[in-house]
Amino acid sequence: MLNNTPGSVLLAPSPAGKSYDMMYYLKGAAAGGICCSITHGALTPVDVVKTRVQLDPVKYNKGLIGGFRQVIAEEGASALATGLGATAVGYFIQGWFKFGGVEFFKITAANSLGVEKAWENKTVIYLGAAAGAEFIADLFLCPLEAVRIRSVSDPEFADGLASGFVKMAKTEGFMGFYAGLLPILAKQIPYTMAKFAVQGSVADTMYTSMGTSPAEVSSGTALGISLSSGIVAGVASAIISHPADTLLSKVNKAGAGGDGPMMTRLANIAKEIGFMKLCTVGLFPRCVMIGSLTAGQFGIFDTVMSALGASKFHFTNPHA
Fold first, then answer.
1. How many CB atoms lie within 10 A of CB 276?
2. Contact, 198 vs 236, CB < 8 A?
3. Counting beta carbons within 10 angstroms of the beta carbon of residue 110, is it exposed (0 to 12), middle (13 to 18) or buried (19 or more)?
4. Contact (CB, 8 A) for 27 and 90
5. Which phi and psi (to 5°) does residue 45 adopt?
6. Most buried pick, 7, 30, 162, 317, via CB within 10 A?
7. DSSP 3-state helix, strand, coil percentages of the chain (rounded to 5)?
8. What is the pLDDT of residues 241-288, one digit of tens each?
9. Whole-model pTM?
10. What 3-state class would DSSP assign to 254?
11. What span, in angstroms and rounded, lies between the C-alpha atoms of 289 and 5?
12. Residue 171 Cα distances to 155, 157, 168, 228, angstroms
């Protein structure tokens, strides 16, 4: 009966002895899409304010709470949901490829190296798996992120995701969707590398300090460790990727950086802003956003994986 139910394949437990087959990766991808869509969608109001601060720091100069008040006073509370559709769809697709890709690449590397070498080189594996998965994910995310940022920077740009795509295609052509590809790669790849490497390292340290392993703790304890390590990873990755995030917000604003090749435009924007402002403007709201977002992602990912009957892969210390 289960096999005739829509979605029953994903809900079926992984076969014994084949925990990391294609079905495992599909479950990982689905869990990744769900966790990223939910967390990014829920934080859309924070992202709207953060983006406004980055795009117009002279006007929005009263901090995160002040920014909320300004947006609501000038445009109404509904303005805080600007870009929600593009955010939810875009980050479901990105999460699908990112989390599914990280699981695929790290397990493939671990199987190739063997248990002992995989444990010794787990940080390198995390970094490589995250970089590869994020690159693929960003090729799908970039068009939706371009529409989202244009909608946030110009509330009159479009009424929704579909109309935004149509208008950008007509006015800027196909390449308009990828105007921010270089900064999004510069932002997302270091961010994701730090996110998975730091979270994995912090989680392993917590389990080691407790003298236990993921398989030996309760689901509540495992969730607590996922959330705690996710917060640390989120703040670290937010700081690392913030300059590129500011450039991404700027370059998708009409006319930013002048004319010419993308690298010239990015160089012009960086020169106009200055290095310190590039690294610090909007950093606090981004740390709040990414810290909570990353914790939520790992918590939801582990919960959904468990609900789908998949046992998440963990590196094993052969000497423990």
1. 8
2. yes
3. buried
4. no
5. -60, -40
6. 30
7. 80, 0, 20
8. 888 777 777 766 656 677 767 677 778 888 887 878 888 888 888 888
9. 0.75
10. coil
11. 37
12. 17, 11, 5, 45
